[in-house]
Amino acid sequence: MNPISFKEQTKILNKPEGMTDKECSPLPVWNGDSQRCISCWKANLKERLLFLFTGKIWLWVWYGQTQPPVCVDIIHPFRKTTKEKIKSLINIISRFRIGLPNYDPIKK
User: Fold this and answer.
1) Each residue's pLDDT tens digit in the chain (108 positions)?
2) What is the spatial distance between Cα 44 and Cα 14, in angstroms, rounded to a whole number?
3) For residues 25 and 42, is the Cβ–Cβ distance under 8 A?
4) Most buried pick, 47, 64, 86, 99, via CB within 10 A?
5) Which of 81, 74, 7 minimizes the C-alpha distance to 42?
6) Helix ranges (DSSP H) in 1-108
């Protein structure tokens, strides 16, 4: 996956000193509330197919033996209508008790 620019971004984080361009690239982010730092990533076709069949995404965090609070999501964080649609769909599906976890994208 590769980080991509997006309309709501407020700044670009540059790579740490000592890292090469191959190891780390600039990261467009939104941090408008000074509590969260949100970036947008795009998967290539191979990654999309792999996710489709495995349903897994791996999160890597460098520097340290623990990690800060993080969130990996597929829902656009700046569009409430999308979140509401997803929440509504999950509620409908959960009525059939197919084992979906309790997930409320509005409360993030």
Assistant:
1) 899 999 999 999 998 888 898 888 899 999 988 788 899 999 999 999 999 999 888 888 776 666 677 778 877 788 766 667 777 777 767 766 555 555 555 555
2) 23
3) no
4) 86
5) 74
6) 45-54, 80-94
| Pairwise CA distance, residues 65 & 44, whole Å | 30
Both tokens of 92, joined, read 């409908």
DSSP 3-state assignment of 105?
helix
DSSP codes joined into one string, 8-48 = T--EEEPPPTT--TTT---EEEB-TTSS--B-EEE--HHHH
- Beta bridge pairs of residue 4: 40
User: Positive or negative CA dihedral for 76, 81, 83, 89?
Assistant: negative
In the numeric block, which tokens belong to residue 81? 């209508």
The span from the CA of 76 to the CA of 84, in Å, is 11
